[in-house]
Structure formats: structure tokens, C-alpha cells
Design brief:
alpha/beta, 29% strand, 6-stranded mixed beta sheet, Rossmann fold, 228 residues, 10 strands, 4-stranded antiparallel beta sheet
């Protein structure tokens, strides 16, 4: 599904190039559950943003289902992102001027779905996440944990082929966090590829493989004993 060849990300400064990612080589197969770990500043969120086609690399190659993402225009990357990817952001990125219901409906609006079908899917997700009572509220009226739940629900609602999650349980109670990770595992068991960034050793155990980043380099890649 994903192949990275010598991927690098840097920013030009007066002192020269400041590298965030260095010579990243990785292959992720469809249906894998991958965890990316490392200390703050290791490049984890930057790597996730590039994989999600929200940012572009400075050097190297990124192939997604054989599409050469590194050669694509921002418009074409955005189209590919909407077609295949669900993203859980660390800072939620909910649209403040839309209700919970409308935030959940947006990913479905990119697909060829009739209004009645969209309503059915959104109602099902509201029920599954136990946020039916919040559907007419705006993000500013929700707690941090509630916003996190809506953000996770939005990433899942269109049943994407790939879910990218940046600290997906960071603001949730432990029981809610476990429930979200069990949902991810269930989706993964049914074929969805998942790549998460986390500091949680518990969350990491749900994955098949752990990639460790340090100062922008991959320093280790190991199997994880998946929790069941």
C-alpha cells in the first residue's frame, strides 16, 4: 500500500537546512496496524502528515497504491486523500462553524452517496460513539474528550482504506481510550490499514509492528505482540 524511499523533510533557515525527517525507508502492506513511537521532536507527526498527503516531503519518493505521491500536484494529492484516508488529528481540527452531525457528514459528502444514505451512516456512528445527544452542538460546546471522540468518529465514518491517528486517545478516559483502540483493532481485523502515532505502550500493543523514530531517523522497527 505504502512505499517510502529515502524520504526527507527539511526547512530552510539562515543557518542552512534543518532536517525533521532523514532518509526514511519503509514499506507498509495493506491491512497492517503500525505504531510510530519516539520522543517529542522525533518527526512522528510530520511523517504522519506526509503519509496523509497534508504535507509534502522535501526529498525522496512516496508511493501510495503505486501512485507517485511525490510527483503529484496538491490538488491530485488532496483528491487521493479524500478517497482513501481518514485522519485523527492531535488537535481535533473539527470545523467550528459546523455541528457534530455536520462535521461527521463532511467525509461522506466527498463520496457518491445519496442524502438518505449519508443520514443513515452518520446516525449509526453517532449511536456507536454514544454521542447522539451531542449531534446539534458545535465543537466549542464540547469538552476536549468529547471533541476527541467526534474526531475519531469523523475519521471512521466513511470507512477509509487507511486511518492515520495522531495520539488518538490523548484526551480520553482510560475506558474510552480502550474502547477506541478496540474499535481500531476491529477495523484492522476487517482489512483497514491503521498507522498511529502514540506515546502509550498500551496502545502500541494493539499494532503488528512498531517503528521507532529519533531525531528524524528510523532507529528501530520491531514486531508488537498484538493485544486481543
Amino acid at each position: 500500500m505504502i512505499r517510502l524511499n529515502n524520504l526527507e523533510k527539511y526547512y530552510e533557515t539562515q543557518a542552512g537546512k534543518t532536517f525533521v525527517l532523514r532518509r526514511i525507508n519503509a514499506e507498509i502492506k495493506e491491512g497492517e496496524f503500525i505504531t510510530v513511537m519516539g520522543p517529542s521532536g522525533a518527526g512522528k507527526s510530520t511523517l504522519l502528515a506526509i503519509l496523509g498527503m497534508l504535507d509534502s516531503a522535501s526529498n525522496g519518493e512516496y508511493f501510495f497504491h503505486d501512485h507517485p505521491v511525490h510527483k503529484m500536484s496538491p490538488k491530485d494529492r488532496n483528491k487521493l486523500h479524500k478517497q482513501y484516508i481518514g485522519f485523527v488529528f492531535q488537535q481535533y481540527h473539527l470545523l467550528d462553524n459546523l455541528t457534530v452531525y455536520e462535521n461527521l457528514e463532511i467525509p461522506l459528502s466527498y463520496r457518491d452517496m445519496k442524502k438518505g444514505d449519508r443520514e443513515s451512516v452518520v446516525c449509526d456512528v453517532l449511536d456507536r460513539f454514544q454521542i447522539v445527544g451531542k449531534k446539534d452542538l458545535y465543537p466549542s460546546q464540547l469538552s476536549g474528550g468529547q471533541q476527541q471522540l467526534v474526531a475519531v468518529a469523523r475519521a471512521m465514518v466513511a470507512k477509509p482504506r487507511l486511518i492515520l491517528a495522531d495520539e488518538p486517545t490523548g484526551n480520553l478516559h482510560s475506558s474510552q481510550g480502550k474502547e477506541i483502540m478496540e474499535m481500531f483493532k476491529n477495523l484492522n481485523d476487517n482489512g483497514t490499514t491503521i498507522i498511529q502515532v502514540t506515546h502509550s505502550e498500551v496502545n502500541a500493543q494493539y499494532s503488528d509492528r512498531i517503528i521507532q523514530l529519533f531525531d528524524g531517523w528510523i532507529v528501530d522497527a520491531q514486531q508488537a505482540s498484538a493485544a486481543r
